[in-house]
Amino acid sequence: MSKSPPAQRVIPIQPLFAAEPKVYPRSVSGLFQRWRWGLVWFTQIVFYGLPWLPWNGRQAVLFDLEARRFYLFDLVLYPQDTIYLAILLVLSALALFLFTAVAGRLWCGYTCPQTVYTEIFLWLEKLVEGDRPQRMKLDAAPWSPHKLALKTAKHGLWGALALWTGFTFVGYFTPIDELARDTAALALGGWSIFWILFYGGATYGNAGFLREQMCKYICPYARFQFVMFDADTLIITYDEKRGDPRGSRSRNADPRAKGLGDCVDCGICVQVCPTGIDIRDGLQAECIGCAACIDACDQVMDKMSYPRGLIRYSTETAMKQGGAWAAIARRSFRPRVLIYSAVFLALAAATAWSLATRVPLKVNLERDRTVLAREVAGGEIENVFRVQLTNASETPRRYAIVADGLAGLRIEASEPVAVPAAATEITTLQIRAEAGAAGPGAQPIRVTVTDLADPSVSVTEEAKFWMP
Ligand code: SF4
Ligand code: SF4
């Protein structure tokens, strides 16, 4: 008798990504909404305005990659100053750790570009298509000339803002007035067009479509910031003790007599949430800390004549033990916060000191290896060096160069070297020493470059003088 083959086990395929319904955040007004918009205005005025600010006849902030120079107001940084950029990144990371430990997702909720541009794009969307119910109705409706006109207008506005953002961003790397002139003359270079479209496209895609998906699935900061949270970190939280049991009731009803808490279960806190979560389910990774649910719930509490703050800023400790703002503020001074603050302040102070005392002159001295040490007329020994002088200031300078360290050491036919503002000059030095000044081999010498008009601008470099 032949055996029937064993039945194949079917393993269900698990999708790696669960599609979620589109979020239609309802607009909200209130204290935190005003703060959010205040910061939208502030960050955008700075971002769009800064590249147009003139400074000493040039752009105040310009990261000129082609000329390998970064201009930050009076400060001119060169590739040799990359350390300052590295320190700036470390300081930013420390500031983020510090603010996250104290105030949770303050950055995400108020100043992160993703939040700011989503807020602006949502405002444009509301301007064209209306608030949440109208937008939901429009999306559910079949295509019609009216729907097409609204969608075209919205995408037109989004596209224009995205392109302006891309243009401004490129204006931090290419002089923006040149960029504007080239744009007006339709003479933009290929790379400029590419980067404007790239950054414009990123803004359009992130703020128009990805929105909360960026915070939930892509942003690395959202993933690891919970490591920096503790029981005393400021979070946005629903007061379960006060709000539950939830239920609808009339405005005049006594909730206690009905066995209810203060939450009327209206769901408005969920409708205003840009990530579509219910804060009443507890602290969630998806919560970006925008405080829209606080404003929404406070309005409901006002209408019901209940005290505000059913959803509020608090900490896990304060929610468990109770405690006023004074207790929350006191617990901000805990070891982790003090350590972050101390490291941040020490590094910031050291950087400020280093920048304040920075000499605007860079000297790069190298022995010319193509020319051997040789005896010249008069019996002196000559070594040839190549020196590169970078004037890291905004004024032209003339430098005197002297050498010392060996008996009779001098530079043959040494003339002051003129270097224009923010420029580099290379010159050759024929350095000579008396024949018996030292034994054979490499001998240490010093070469000093000093500004003729300002002796405080002086750099000494060490080198090896070769005696045959
Ligand atoms: S739960 Fe509240 S604070 Fe968190 S993202 Fe939603 S609306 Fe913003
Ligand atoms: S807005 Fe306030 S009252 Fe309404 S469901 Fe949310 S927590 Fe409850």
Task: Give the CA-based shape.
Answer: elongated
**Strand segment tally:** 16
**CA distance, first residue to last residue:** 101 Å
The helicity comes to: 40-55%
Q: Helix tally?
A: 16
**Largest sheet at a glance?**
5 strands, antiparallel
What structural class is derived from the secondary structure elements? alpha+beta
Kindly provide the radius of gyration, computed on alpha-carbon positions and rounded to a whole number of angstroms: 33 Å
Unreliable spans: none
Q: Supply the number of structural domains.
A: 2
Mean pLDDT value: 91
Unique bound compounds: iron/sulfur cluster
Q: Beta-strand level of the residues, as a percent range?
A: 15-25%
Give structural notes.
With 468 residues, the protein is of the alpha+beta class. The protein folds into two domains: 16-358, no CATH class; 361-467, Sandwich (Immunoglobulin-like), CATH 2.60.40.10. The protein has helices at 31-49, 82-103, 106-110, 113-129, 132-140, 145-170, 176-184, 190-210, 212-218, 220-224, 240-243, 268-271, 292-304, 316-321, 325-330, 335-356; strands spanning 54-55, 58-59, 61-64, 69-72, 75-77, 235-238, 311-314, 361-367, 374-375, 381-391, 397-404, 410-411, 417-419, 424-433, 441-451, 458-467. Strands 8, 9, 10, 12 and 14 form a five-stranded antiparallel sheet that branches. Strands 13-11-15-16 form a four-stranded antiparallel sheet, with no helix packed on it. Strands 3-4-5 form a three-stranded antiparallel sheet, with no helix packed on it. Strand 15 (441-451) and strand 16 (458-467) form a beta hairpin. Helix 1 (31-49) crosses helix 4 and helix 6 (145-170) crosses helix 8 (190-210). The longest helix is centred in the middle third of the chain and has 26 residues, at 145-170. The radius of gyration is 33 Å and the shape is elongated. The N and C termini lie far apart (101 Å). The model has no long low-confidence stretch (mean pLDDT 91). It binds iron/sulfur cluster (2 copies). One iron/sulfur cluster (SF4) is lined by residues 238, 243, 263-269, 280, 296-297, 300, 310-311.
